[in-house]
Amino acid sequence: MSTSRGPHRRSYWLTWTLCVIISAACECAAPDSLKLVWLSNTSLTCNDGSAAGYYIRRGSNDQHWVVYLEGGGYCWDAASCNARWRRRPGLMSSSRWPRTRRAPALLSADPQANPLWHASNHVLLPYCSSDMWTGTRTLRRSNNSFAFAGRLIVRSVLDELLQFGFAGRLLLVGSSAGGTGVMFHADSARRSLRTHGIRVAAIADSGWFLDRPQKTRRASSTDNMARLGHSLWLGSPPTSCVREYPKKPWLCYFGYRLYPHIRTPLFVFQYLFDSAQLTAEGVRAPRTRAQWDVVHETGSAIRESLKNVRSTFAPACIAHGALARPEWLAINVSGVSLPRAISCWERRFSRSNRKERARCAPRKLVERCTWPQCNGSCPRLRDPRTGEEVALAALLQSFGLDVRGAAAAMGLDARALSRMSRAELLPLLAPHT
């Protein structure tokens, strides 16, 4: 080894050693990473009894906090929980949590990736309770069972954040099961934090599930799964909703039933053809006309369930979850992007002036088109069996569109139409669907 490289090597090891010694304050971590903090209340754990915690990064805007509840499905009885433990143990344990985590899109400090909240204080709650953040079962009954303390974990994290000088505004956000959790926690968070002068608003991303009957013999009823889960988790839905459904409190796990009882400002993002909802109904990879009929029925049902939601953004896509993904910037409805819609929604309940609010987008942005993937900003649809992108023409044909007839109406050859790209095809088909 040449002597000229020795000083550089010694300098590197010195820097590395200093980072290890003062890791709490060192900036050697990736610039877009969040730091792990374990909950001080050690009685609140993940499913397997391992410690619960959260990731945090302080931003330059001390008056705005974004707290994000991760999603990741749930389990509802011994069989489903044991299967989840075998297949996805990372969603039930903190034993392999890294000391730092790269921020998802909505918690990024990069203004290009996160134009709305890059300067905010960011908090990420990793999901390890498998209960849609609603459980209060803290003790494992035996070595073969699990704890479900999601609701208590959220409360404890919010309490701890007050020790960080928590002030100003809190935006509680969640995706999938985290989106359901947000709807559960929005009002309780608002009530507990307003005594500290903190204003709360919430965004539910893809947590708006329906209790529709299963469409195949292999699918389990979402209503039945919620019933079993509510009992297993010792779930604690908002009291006002339980009063409406005293004999079936698990119905409060479904967004359209819970929404009328939420008083906190809430923005609902929901794909009209939510892939998690379709999977729950037994239609994971639709191929036949009958399966596509189910897809259309689900889309119509989701559209109908959103009609009384004051602030909603609903593209006609087959997808699930948006805000944690980079493509959230590109999603739009009627030419209004998702970031712009959320920005306008935030202005309405903030102290912005009337002129700013007047320039804003409509509160309700629900796709007018009624067929799946008709929105050009939809995430690409891929066949779960092969991983390959599904061609739009083939997709349309599989759920009953007469491609030959559509081609003739547009003065095109059917083979030419089938070879068109998504960007070419959508503008042509829009007037004919």
Automatic annotation (TrEMBL):
Signal peptide: 1-28
Keywords for the protein's UniProt record, in alphabetical order: Signal
Keyword check for RNA-binding: no
Name used for this protein in its record: Palmitoleoyl-protein carboxylesterase NOTUM
A molecular function GO annotation: hydrolase activity
Family label: Belongs to the pectinacetylesterase family. Notum subfamily.
Record-linked Pfam families: PAE (PF03283)
